[in-house]
Amino acid sequence: MKIALAFGVTFCFGAVGMAQAQTIRGREGITLPLPPPVQADPVTDNYFDIKITDSYRWLEDAKSAQTREFIDAQNAYTTRYLKQAKIRPQIVDDLDPLENVTETGAPRERAGSYFFERRHSGEQQFSIYVRHGWTGKDERLIDPAVMSRDTNTSVQLEDVSRDGSLIAYGLKEGGADEHSIHLFEVKTKKTLEDELPAARYFGSVFAPDGKSLYYARNNKEGTLLFQHVLGTRPSKDVLIFGREFRGEPLGPIDLFGPTITDDGRYLVIQIDRGVPARRVDIVFRDLTKPGSPFEVLVWGLDSHFQTIYAKGTWVTKTDYKAPNGKILAADPGVLPDAWKTIVPEGQDVIEDWSIVGGKLYVNRLKDVKTDTTVFALDGKPAGKISYDEIGSASTMVGRTTDRYGYFSFESFIRPWTIYRLDTTTGKREIFFQPKIDFDSSQYELKQVFFESKDGTKVPMFIAGKKGLKQDGTERLLMTGYGGFQVSMTPEWNPAYAWWIQQGGWFAMPNLRGGQEYGEHWHEQGMFEKKQNVFDDWFAAAQYLIDNKYTSPAHFAIRGRSNGGLLMGASIVQHPELFSAVWCGYPLLDMLRYQKFLVGRYWTTEYGSAENEKQFPYLLKYSPYQNVKAETAYPAVMFFTGDSDTRVDPLHARKMTPLLQAASSSRRPILLHYSLSGGHSAGVSVDQKIQDDADELAFLWTETGQPGRAAKPHAP
Question: What pLDDT band is residue 20 in, cutting at 50, 70 and 90?
Fold first, then answer.
């Protein structure tokens, strides 16, 4: 077969470039035939007088018969591998008590009743419950299991009317981002005929009187805010906001959703310009004055803003002239320079914040560990919330007028616990704690710092069993993200818990591109500086190798979405550092990503190859264009599926045969392509266990030794 690589140079070799290899050799004695043959059909593009050849452009068409045949053949090949992974049945058994547990979300209090999501052990999906009064009996209202025989059908609580009589909930199939919206009457236990068809919604909220629903729907045109009057057809819904404002067009990457202030007076719209937003605008409408125009809280500044209206004040968090964030009392129509400071910028970034019970709860990150300070609305200190160990606390959940708020705390070695806090007395109690067979006292979580290529000091969390040897012989799993202002904090994950239960190390560096140290940290990992993210990652890997946590032969890495791009960069830039790579829902062809699904949103983070100034750096790091023939690549599992409506699965489809053809290592290059799963949550517990088992079986096996039986786990 012919295959063309990055700059239009054509190489000829067999189904894999493995020096006439006739078999693929996995670790732990696994052997496979050559991958299924894939036809290369080169297409050449001209980017600013540079010709780029793409041999698998035909795989971008997900619906073609040829693509479906390719998917079936690759899935069969991957199944053949997994059937030889001797540890996989054990993993399934081990994951069941870690994942198949009762889980509950934080409640929303409305008129003395508490509404929340819960999934009992043995159930596949969350249901929506109500508890009438704090000591009342929990009553299931909406159960997806009675709506569909498909266990990948899920529901999510969108909003509850102020009097607690109505629920808006989303209904979703599999892992797609799209869902339909339904309305449910609590007293009669009936779903109303009102139904908003499946689409990409950015929030829905009841009007204060409960007689209508505001919702934001996104399509190719952009985001549009509608008002649906209960009892009418959706086709009659009225457009409230969208397309343009103040003479400025609102385009496809301008995203917003509705909120209503807790006193019911204002409808508020926060407009994010791109993902991540390069700027945020906020407008509001006074609902006590029917037909009144939207007014501006802030508009046209290249900064980020969030606002909560409490006791007559627009309390607003911003990074305007404050990269680590500050909280101000906003004055509509006046520039932020004149706003009164409530909480000034500090050394540590404000990760999240809320107002509950008339108090301001501010979560800062002190070297990526949560530190929560409480203030009165005038900025006077009102105490702290203390945590006894390294971990992550959520923001306080509740309304500005609620007496009680809810927050959670968790880490890699500590399952999450939800607490109920009395904002008047400061007393807290456990609202929900899962029963998981995991003894946290046997494990340790620590933080280290290392230097990146340019000398930047970068933090990293490391977890493992107490007393675990550090001689380079143990397996290690590292994950990362590095982008979109996402702070990667310690959180509970059953798959990571399984890994360290077996005696492996787990590590997570806090790469630039996130928000761990404020907006400057993010900016150092975007656009032309994206390589900093990869350099931080490689420096983290080298630190772990140098300090004998592991060695390249036992080094596994995993990442998804933007983290899948990180995996792609790892494969093509430093294949010698890693033994096994799980690359989930990845972005890999960075020259064409913006052309598919919602890829255009992310041009505010990556840039676009359609821009002559941005094309060169995208070409330089884009994994798909930088695969090199006859290179010893590590074992790789690409993981994606038809229901991913966010990152197009074409990236994994195209990269799989390209890498299979180029690799000279005789290591497995696999495509795990789900016909039901997708980017978002929503698959059943059983499906999640099977998917996690596939991933872990691959990573554990491919960090073992050739011909050696899989290492059993400790009792």
Answer: very low
Buried b (16+ CB within 10 A) or exposed e, 582-615: bbbbbbbbbbbbbebbbbbbbbbbbbbbeeeebb
Measured distance CA(517)–CA(345) in Å, rounded? 12
- Would the pLDDT of 5 be above 50? no
Q: How far apart are CA 21 and CA 711, in angstroms?
A: 28
677 pLDDT band, cuts 50/70/90, is low
Residue count (the chain): 715
Query: Quick check: is 679 catalytic?
Result: yes
- 523-527 LR contacts (CB < 8 Å, sep 24+): 524/456, 525/482, 525/483, 526/483, 526/605, 526/606, 527/605, 527/606, 527/607, 527/614, 527/617
According to the model, what pLDDT value does residue 10 have?
30
Main-chain dihedrals φ then ψ at residue 684, nearest 5 degrees:
-70, 165
Q: Which helix (H) or strand (E) holds 542?
A: helix 531-546
Answer whether 522's CB lies under 8 Å from 547's CB. Answer: no
C-alpha 520/C-alpha 259 separation (Å) is 29
Query: Which one from 127, 487, 679, 680 is the annotated catalytic residue?
Result: 679
Per-residue DSSP letter, 552: G
Other CB atoms within 10 Å distance of the CB of residue 501: 18
Average pLDDT, the chain: 93
Choose the catalytic residue: 394, 487, 551, 561: 561
- Helix crossing, 650-662 with 65-84: angle to 10°? 60
Burial class (CB in 10 A: 0-12, 13-18, 19+), 181: buried
Separation CA 152–CA 149 (nearest Å): 9
Lowest mean pLDDT among 540-544, 563-567, 704-708: 704-708
CA distance 35 to 670: 8
Cα torsion at 213, 218, 219, 225 (round to 10°)?
50
Peptide bond into 586 cis (omega under 30): no
Neighbouring C-beta atoms of residue 377, cutoff 10 Å = 20
Q: Is 169 exposed, middle or buried (0-12, 13-18, 19+ CB in 10 A)?
A: buried
DSSP SS3 for 622:
coil
Question: Which single residue is written with the structure tokens 């945590």?
Answer: 387
Alpha-carbon span 670 to 79, nearest angstrom? 9
Q: Report whether pLDDT(164) > 50.
A: yes
Q: How far apart are CA 97 and CA 434, in angstroms?
A: 11
Question: Of 612, 495, 416, which is closest to residue 95 (Cα–Cα)?
Answer: 495
CA gap 323, 350 in Å, rounded? 9
Examine the residue annotation and report whether 561 is marked as an active-site residue of this protein. yes
The pLDDT, as a whole number, for residue 343 is: 98
Cα–Cα nearest to 536, from 516, 511, 505: 511
**CA–CA dist 686, 96 (Å, integer):** 9
pLDDT tens, residue by residue, 277-305: 889 999 999 999 988 999 999 999 999 99
pLDDT of residue 529: 98
